[in-house]
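Supplementary Methods S3. Input chains for the assembly prediction are listed below.
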Amino acid sequence: MDLLVDSLKSALLLLLSFDPELYEIVGVSLNVSFFSTLFAALFGLPAGFFIAFNSFRGKRLVMTCLNTLLALPTVVIGLVVYSLISRRGIFGPLELLYTQKAIIIGQIILIVPLITTLTIAAISRIDQRYRNTALTLGATYYQMGWVVFLEARFGIMAALIAAFGRVIAEVGISMMLGGNAKGFTRTMTTAMALEYDKGEFVLAVALGMVLMTFAFVINMVFHFLQGRLKSDAL
Amino acid sequence: MLYELNNVVRLFGSRTVLEIDSLSFEARKIYALIGPNGAGKTTLLNQLAFLDQPNSGEIRFRSTPVSYDHSSLTGLRRQVVLVDQSPILFSGSVWKNIEFGLKVRKIPKKERARRIEHALEMVTMSDFAHQDVYGLSGGEVKRVALARALALEPEVLLCDEPTANVDREHQEIILKILSHANSVRHTTIIFSTHYLSQSRQLAHRTLLLQNGRLSKNLEENIFQARIIRRDERLKCLVNGHLIPFSDPDGLASDNRQLRVHVDPQKVKLKAFGQKPVLSPWIPGKITSLSKENGNIRIMVDVGLKLQILLSEDEFIAHPYQVLQQVGVGLDGLGVTLLP
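Predicted structure tokens for the full assembly:
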């Protein structure tokens, strides 16, 4: 118990002293997580829309595959991407291994199925009457899609937040593809794992506190927007 | 003709929900669709709103066959608006909801504001313009949906049970709005209703749908009736007369109040001259005669206005006259219970 209390006190002091190493690690984490969520959204949102809006042969199979991919372990993704971007891999000449780009690629693979399935769920929850109402009021097919998107915006925002939360807290991909290089690819989670291995809990606890603070702030912002956007849809 | 439907069939799975051999709608008229639940009224309205495609058959709009590709449909839909039975409003304010259809039509902002204000005035909801739709009651939602459609000034306004879930005062307002849109803007109005009184009040023509099919010649002849057991048999009491009936939907039970339809082609007519009209014939007086599509339409006052259709041959054989005393014969085949 003393260890935890002492670590918490020291971590708080570390945070308040604006320790450059700590803030560098936080910066790398945010940078990597932001871009992986952004690129995954660029693919996952349209894919979710397409699947939710259309009936096609094999839709059920696609859904099953997406649900299976949700359970994909990060180390498996790490291994697959490693085999592709390591020096002997087909993308070896691009020299991506142990860079932030490599982490982003792995994390995109991790969260695309999550964003897609949550988008499908969000769109499917929207009453069919919204589509017909938009169409009968003269909307084109794309304008109708926009109406549905607006009505499903909270579900879609929740999907993006869940995806961001998933990547900022993952350790396997960051460790395997980033290599935990100080100042370059060291993220909050890989730094915490390293500090734990060294028996140094202070930085690990401080980073844990930052992670928890992020989770809290993101959810607060989401709830705030939910309240404001409710009356501001069209 | 505005709409022409030929051999239109709509299936849901293996069930035929709509089967229209031939039906046309004229521009600038008001049409009422009546029929029990599940008769196909909403399905027909969706077809007319170009929101659904028939499995077979052809729909023509302004003499042009409807093409169901996205680009053609948007053009057609911008002439026709459907107000749903349980309308849905987009999240946001009342104003933004009404503005939506005007925005997608790229109508200038000033004109949009004028139309929105006018539409809100018509439905007596001007005070709600900037209110969030989440706070509205069911009746208010219905009126906003109607305002949203009226602001578009469509050629055709389709309303699925426009007065359902609306209090009596606002029912009258809605009916007046529909009538006004037709008389002032010459909007063609097609609405479904359970109330014959509304169709009589508003419509130039009433169509009855039963089991997805149009009931021929059924524009009138729907009466209130009470089911009564007499001599171990159920009969219906209409305006003091006990008459047999057919009950395909199994609706009859002792002392139940419901509506009956009398098929004008299955009513028998007999001249009694100066003799008294004997039971089971019901005494009546002919009040009007008119020619209609090769038939003679005869209105007989039996305490209720009863429409009868005779073929020209029958009429030539029995040339009835206005004010003539006649006996009316109704058997079970021509009288059907309605839910």
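The interface with chain B takes residues 127, 129-130, 132-141, 143, 147, 150-151, 230-234 of chain A (CB under 8 Å). DSSP finds eleven helices and no strands in chain A.
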